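User: Can you help me understand a structure? I only have the sequence.
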Amino acid sequence: MLQSIYSRSTTILKRFSSASTNQMTVLYEPGFSTPWDLLPTTRYCGFVTDLRAKVQIRSMEEQELPELEVTATRTERITAVRDMEWKGRRKEFALFLETSGVGPTKIAAISLLNRVPYYHINLMPYFTDNGIVNVAADARILGRVEDAGYGLLQGEDELVIFGSVKEEVTTLPEEDRTIQYCQPFTWTLGTVSAQLLPVNVNRLQATFVNRHSTARIYLNYGVIAENSKGICLMPNGGSYEINTTNPYKGVISAIADAAGATLSGLECI
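Assistant: Let's start by predicting it. Here is the structure, written out as tokens:
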């Protein structure tokens, strides 16, 4: 069996307001796989493709843009912008990286100013010159609002961090499990829910066929089935199968919309 790569997309969305403290907040941490991912529980690695901040500061006066002469030099222009960002009244937001071996490490500080109505900041350049920020399975990105001498967020102040991530995990080669044994069943169902199969962690396949000529049968993943809900098996051969493309190991129940409905099935391990 060859190695397989599983991927999924996720969204970063964190909001900071006057209710936020100066405690660190996880902005992004690679997630874990789920039973629906068809692979053992493990943590993904992340590829951040977009990361931005929406800044809306109302608790301070609006920041005036510097007045520059047409003849101002490049150095004078850069200095004026720096002074506007860092020498006046401002709020501040810090970005951190953390791994399993190194605690939260500050990598950048961002000045938050009052610019009506609001403005956006591209946060990607604080992490990389490339178009993607690679976040290992044992790493995460954190942030917090810091007091730069003018307090934390107040009143209607708001900071929103948002972005997109593609997560991937690679599975190691392993032998495919094959069916070793199958147990056939026949059930007679009525209008009261009945359990068909209990939990079976070794289940590789389960197949169900409605053999009644007129009754509909409804399957459910769980202990109680309800009429007109769940997976409907139509009369005269309506069927459903659980296999490696839709694995389910738990309890399976069923109900019919008429008495005496015959259901045949097979569970394989």
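Now, to help you interpret it: The chain has two domains: 4-171, 182-268. Residues 4-171 form a domain with the Jelly Rolls fold (CATH 2.60.120). Let me know which part you'd like to focus on.
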